[in-house]
Every structure is written in structure tokens, then in C-alpha cells.
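Issue: ligand-bound run for zinc ion - logging full I/O for the record.

Environment: standard queue, default settings, no custom constraints.

Inputs:
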Amino acid sequence: MKKKEVSISYLEYGNISELPAAEKDLVEEAVAAASGAYAPYSHFMVGAALLLDDGTVIRGANVENAAFPSGSCAEKTALSYMVANYGTRRVMAIAIAAMTEDRMTEEPVPPCGNCRQMLVEEEQRSDSHIKVILAGSSAVYVLESSQALMPLSFTGSNLRK
Ligand SMILES: [Zn+2]
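Outputs:
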């Protein structure tokens, strides 16, 4: 028997203004994307912004439904749109921000497990790392790869062994 450990590292910034310009711009896109959310039940409006390798930015927002499981997360919305419409491009980074009422959450809001799974798959599909920027008004976390959010993840290779 062997004991193994998995650890992740990430950068923590005190606020959005400390970010490098490109990352700050992407966070602002995510904040703007949140305004497109349809969240009449939770009033928790999430925005995601994908930066593609050609500079295109794709926004996604959460879309709720009275039949709750029918809703979709902001990250999933953005990734699905990207794959369907820009499938030959690569995602370089994703920024995620959430609003309650008219205010950004203080703490960064991490993606749910389903969205982490989608991010890992997209990294593998494009054979590249997707930088993850999780933005809150009092802290911003930056991870160099979405794989860090999902260690020991289930992937397509598991289907073949
Ligand atoms: Zn999600």
C-alpha cells in the first residue's frame, strides 16, 4: 500500500485591479455576462467568459428552470456554445464571477463538479491548458489549468481500459 497525495497551487490576488490586464478584462466580461443570467429562483447570477486563441470572447450565464434539473450553469452554457460554434479554436482561459442582487460576491465562486468535468474534457479535446480565473470582490484565484480543480478525473481514456 502506498499513500499518495494530490495538491494544487494557485495565485490569490486581493482584488480584481491587481490582475494582469488581460485577466482583468476577462473578469469584466464574466461580470457583464452575469447580467444575462436567467435566475428567477436563486437570484444568484453567474457569468462565465471564455478567451479563445484568436482573441474571441464567449460569454455564458446560468439559465434556471422551474424544473430545476433542466437549468444550466454559466460555464456549461459558454463551453457548449464554444464547442458548437468555435470547435476548432482553443480555450485559453475562463473567468467566472457571480452576482447577488447588484453586487459581486466577496469570495470567488468555483465551478460545480459538472462544469469541472466539462473543463477537463475541453482541455483534453484541445490538448492545452485552460487558465481558470475565479473572481470575487475581495479575492481572485488564478489556476493555470482546470485539471487542478478535478484531480483523478474521469476521462475518455477510462472508457477504453
Ligand atoms: Zn456548473
